[in-house]
Amino acid sequence: MRRVELPNDTIALARFLIGTVLVHDAPEGRVAGRIVETEAYLSHDPASHSFRGPTKRNASMFLGRGFAYVYRIYGTKLCLNVTSESPGIGAAVLLRALEPLEGVEIMQARREGAALRELARGPGRLTEALGVSADVDGADLCKRGTLWLAASLTSAGVIGRSTRIGLTKAAEDVLRFYERGNPYVSGPRWLSV
Q1: Quick check: 171 pLDDT over 90?
Q2: Could you tell me the domains of the chain?
Q3: Predicted TM-score (pTM) of this structure
């Protein structure tokens, strides 16, 4: 996917990414999944890591649109975001869930015992299934490299919208997007109707 194809607006990018494909060319082989759920984190958003400005931890959020921002939550899980604004503006789209497409057996080995539906359903599971490490923080997702975005061969279905999941700050903001009816979407069912 070329950078020029990505909207230069966080909310627009969060919607746009639904149905696109995330590819990780790992040493074990290629794994890929169709993005079915995202959340937008704006520069003025108190729930965003960029709210107080750039730091060593969030520096990649300020690179411009189309780069990976990877961070650790709960001390153990990683989350993957796509940066979403012009250089110097810290904003990103969290990738919350994927529909597995390629390398399913590799994902299953990484997430031993997980059902197909649960392989990449939720941001921590997504990075685990794809084998994403903190080393890809700042990677250009618009270039074919280890981790990259690709257009889908199928268009997204109807896109739903809701509040984001698991937040205490700005919890009422309707900045979560998902493909309606897709079984790989995470979160409680009532939030994905």
Answers
A1: no
A2: 3-184 (3.10.300.10)
A3: 0.93
For residue 182 the two structure tokens come to 């897709």
Burial 125-146 (b: 16+ CB within 10 A, else e): bbbbbbbbeeebbebbbbeeeb
Q: How far apart are CA 40 and CA 69, in angstroms?
A: 13
Three-state DSSP at 104 gives: helix
pLDDT-above-70 percentage for the chain: 97
In the block, residue with structure tokens 């040493």: 27
The two tokens of residue 33 are 């999944």
Report d(CA 86, CA 66) in Å as an integer: 10
Exposure string for 151-189, b = 16+ CB within 10 A, e = fewer: eeeeebeebbebebbebeebeebebbbbbeebebbbbee
User: What's the start-to-end Cα distance of the chain, in Å?
Assistant: 30
